Protein 1
Amino acid sequence: MSKDPQASVDILNLARSMELVAIAQYMQHHYALDNLMYPAFAKAVKRIAIDEMRHAEMLSERIRELGGVPITAPSQAPDTAEDPMVAYAADADLESDTVFKYNEYIEALSAIDHVSAQLLKKIIVEEEGHSQYFQDVIGHITNLGPHYLAVQAGAKFEKTDYEEFIVGKNN
């Protein structure tokens, strides 16, 4: 039970609006990555978007339990980048901001609504996993460049191709 149901609803709706941005952005990036022939990237981003859909639904259920109406508008326009590095950087930034804000929301809710605070604590664990995934891919693209992107697009490389790329051997 919330000591201040309306305050809880307001905070949960802020979180929900952030989830709606993530859904739209990740699905947009999924379509772009799929069009660019990066099936593994596209599939991973789509799975994360589905996680965000589940988060939005969980928040909606709690908002309704408190007598509120779930918000339907995203908090900002989604990024629509098509370049993998730019898209993943935008996604990493979005997850980082979400984790930061959710920590603030958890702190505020802890004083008035233990159930809602616990819900956000559950969601934030997944958000941190998403953030780590995006950061890992950015690191791979940065460190391995076109070779990594080519492999993600399905290119096959022989050991000698890899050695030439990484070690600088010329045969």
Protein 2
Amino acid sequence: MRVFIAISVPEEIKDKIRGAQRRFYKKGMSASREFHITLRFFGEVNQIQVNNIIEKLKYINFKKFEILVDGVGFFGSGSRIRVIFLNVYSKELLDFISTVNKNIPDINPQHIKDMPHITLFRVKGKDIRKEDFVFDFKEEFLVKEFYLIESIPTKEGHIYRTLERFHLGGQ
């Protein structure tokens, strides 16, 4: 199974993201339906590894923290855009990701990334330009919990199933 650790985005911010998607959708783009911030993608793992991840995550002690969602970013090379996303900022978020990676260094470490973001669109077309996606988007929210999620690929996109929920400590 394919699993990752993520933070969920509050519903009121998801509504604003959906509004931005409707406003900027173009042919050749696939809009994300689920909004989360991936902290660590493990890729393909077996049930024993999943159990190991869950056990290690249970013992992470970290306080609640604020996240700022601010502006648009792009993945791709040159003029070829593959993903359009919202930038996510927080020193505490980066510290939290570092804590997660230190506690689980041995399961598919090649997937460790330091670019937290919220995906807006996956791009399949060639006529998508960065200039078409300049807009203000600024929201803040408090992170109180995180999740271990299974990603199940389908023809229509990925289905996400929560395997375990973990609470962060007081602030």
